[in-house]
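Predict structure. Chain length: 226.
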Amino acid sequence: MRILVIEDNSDIAANIGDYLEEKGHVVDFAGDGVTGLHLAVVHDFDAIVLDLTLPGMDGLELCRKLRQEARRQTPVLMLTARDALDQKLTGFDSGADDYMVKPFALAELSARLRAVMRRGAARENVLRVADLEMDTLRRVVRRAGKTIDLKPKEYALLEFLVRNTDRPVTKSLIIEHVWNIHFDSVSNVVEVHINSLRNKIDRGFARPLIHTIRGVGYILTDNPPA
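Prediction complete.
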């Protein structure tokens, strides 16, 4: 999933980002509230990790603006060094979905993010297209009953394609969701990963599922365009 970390402590942000990326997520960063709000409104994130104390705009104000003005319902996990009950209640009243007090265990943060994302948007744990099956909880991919071993970015790309089954997706949209906003869009990394996926997902099977739409991008479908 794509996660925005809004945290002015670069060490904490880096630790969170490294851990989440190891889990297969795409992570973007903002070090102040104004930039964080802009990114949260302009881009489509699956969840936001939001520090309470930020330069420019604090987390409470950011969360209120995100909910009330931008009308965005992206799940928000708020972080703070304070654990007083009134601070937590204020955080929830601003629109936060969950609350963690520093210091925290990265494994717990990851688990709580999964929980708020499940609450924030109903997501199927097992995705199917024709004879292709993705178990997103166990991160297992099978086609026609055969288990397919994928690298982390191949898995992330396939999940994005499967969640957009029958919908064409552009290269820029893939980069935004599978890599991050700072990625070099001139690179041929999308084409390389698409070819790798085709070799693993389509080669040796009766019907290909990944198709190129010239001038547009790619589509994963059991009903290929004419």
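Summary: The two ends are 31 Å apart (CA to CA).
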